[in-house]
Write a structure and sequence with these properties.
Distance between the termini of chain A: 61 Å
Number of strands of chain A: 0
Low-confidence stretches of chain A: none
Number of helices of chain A: 9
Oligomer: homodimer
Chain lengths: ~190, ~190
DNA sequence: TACACATTGGAGCAAACGCTCAAATTCGTG
DNA sequence: CACGAATTTGAGCGTTTGCTCCAATGTGTA
């Protein structure tokens, strides 16, 4: 299935419609009709290309996560400031905020039973911790590897909380607090 | 309605059943049948006492929030350590974790349209920020009121992130990170 | 006891849901 | 053009959902 050109175009239209509807109305209000109406296709076309509604949603989440995977090019050089800013962007940028919100929703609902997404998110998170830890090591000579990992873990948790607070209350000065958190968690200058 | 003794008892059974089911299976899997089966009542009895399924849920959330309202007795004396520990407990304690999780779910789903819960949660949050800010002022003389409020806001956001991380990954050493966050965000000793 | 009204259970309704199916149409290829 | 395969449509199926209705029963009061 889906080997002709038109089929692939329809598939893309459906994924776009799903992503947009998801961003606008959230996970709970997302019905098949919402998707098919928006993509301007019949229900049959949808099921010719996807096994289920959930499959389309997971594919959207997968694409979103894929889209923000760490850029291997800059590896080993970025500063903690850059990484922090990138993390904040992950939540703020409407193109990727989706993945973050849906992931949190799934996590809170205890619905992270889906093998594919769960492991993917987990791998993504571990990679991020490792990347932050490496930056900590680079910028603070006295740090041991394990200490750096702890600091990275802690900073990321704090940043996530700041982003979440901002989601709930848009007046929360996210950028300022994010940088302040980095400064606070960073080891003292003298080390 | 609900003026006889048996009615009030049934009402309590329904609220208990709703809270327990909510804690066990989450918001999405909560059907009316789940509630009525657990409370051992018919659907008619339920609707004799509540306007809708949502009304019962909101009442459960309201009670949970009410149950963790700051204790006025200790006001003006608690240390930041105590407040931090209390906040962590709010998420960890199964009796109250419910309210926190459901609130986050609602917030992420963008479903905080309900006037009652939204304002109540907001008031609750502001009170907590104020309480943390007061403790900051008490323990750090050089601080101005506005600075203390910012620190309180920042610490609470960071703590929330730590709790959320712990919800997703139970191996996250929540207690240790929470205390470390407090130490990091607290102004340096010399101030 | 007599009365008004609160309470109860559960059959079943109307709407919404994800999804199926078969017939019709479009597409790429030799 | 001819042919098989892919694609499309949308009515409608089966299920689940929140909720209604009402006859039967229980409860408090005078």
């Amino acid at each position: 299935m889906a080997r002709y050109r038109v089929g692939l175009e329809t598939r893309r239209r459906i994924l776009d419609a799903t992503r947009e509807a998801l961003a606008e109305d959230g996970l709970n209000d997302l019905t098949l009709k919402t998707i098919t109406d928006r993509a301007d296709v019949g229900a049959g076309s949808f099921y010719n290309l996807f096994d289920s509604k959930e499959a389309a949603i997971l594919e959207v989440v997968r694409e979103a996560i894929e889209g923000v995977d760490p850029d291997p090019a800059g590896l080993g050089k970025e500063r903690l400031e850059d990484l922090t800013e990138a993390f904040v962007s992950f939540f703020v940028d409407p193109r990727t905020a989706l993945a973050a919100r849906i992931y949190l929703q799934l996590a809170l609902a205890g619905a992270l039973s889906d093998e594919g997404v769960a492991t993917r998110v987990d791998r993504h998170h571990r990679a991020r911790v490792a990347r932050f830890a490496a930056a900590f090591l680079r910028e603070h000579d006295a740090l041991e590897a394990e200490q750096a990992r702890r600091l990275a873990e802690r900073l990321l948790a704090a940043l996530m909380g700041a982003c979440l607070t901002w989601v709930v209350d848009p007046e929360f000065p996210l950028q300022a607090h994010a940088m302040a958190l980095l400064a606070a968690i960073r080891p003292a200058e003298g080390a």
